[in-house]
Design goal:
The chain is mainly alpha-helical. The protein folds into 2 domains: 55 residues, 434 Repressor (Amino-terminal Domain); 75 residues, no CATH class. It contains 5 helices and 2 strands. It has a two-stranded antiparallel sheet with strand order 1-2.
């Protein structure tokens, strides 16, 4: 969405995290790709259409015309489960190429050392299931059920 303050993108990220929602869940609900939502939350307002931004604003009760006050996100740890960070730019991922295609291998030990809800490296809400088919995650970079990469 053009003409949107990039600081407002952080407000959406904060609202999503405060509700402990993953990017893939929110993306499905509002009708966009997880990768586009990630780029939007990182401060690129052009990655989502006006309609999707309005759906997000309604979902999180954010007034698009109000002045932006960005507050740091709270970190809450919960039940121990293995999870991975869906944030493509998180330094916990090992980047590698297969036939010229880029993949990211999540590091669950570095990302989730205590079994929390948030990535210990970047603070993103951890994924516990494949963002494409919903299958339980396993070690590696791609889902063993649908073959899609966990981190796009």
């Amino acid at each position: 969405m053009k003409n949107l303050d990039s600081n407002l993108c952080s407000l959406f990220k904060e609202a999503r995290r405060s509700r402990a929602l993953s990017q893939s869940v929110v993306a499905m609900e509002v009708g966009c790709k997880q990768s586009a939502l990630s780029m939007f939350e990182q401060g690129d307002p052009t990655k989502l259409s006006s309609e999707v931004v309005e759906k997000l604003a309604k979902k999180f009760d954010i007034d698009l015309s109000a002045p932006v006050e960005v507050r740091p996100a709270a970190t809450v740890f919960g039940v121990a489960h293995s999870g991975y960070c869906p944030n493509r730019s998180c330094p916990s991922h090992a980047r590698y190429l297969v036939d010229g295609k880029e993949f990211f291998r999540p590091n669950p030990v570095e990302t989730d050392p205590v079994g929390g809800k948030f990535c210990a490296v970047c603070g993103e809400v951890l994924e516990r299931n494949c963002p494409h088919c919903g299958a339980k995650i396993h070690p590696g970079a791609v889902c063993s059920v649908c073959g899609q990469p966990y981190v796009c």
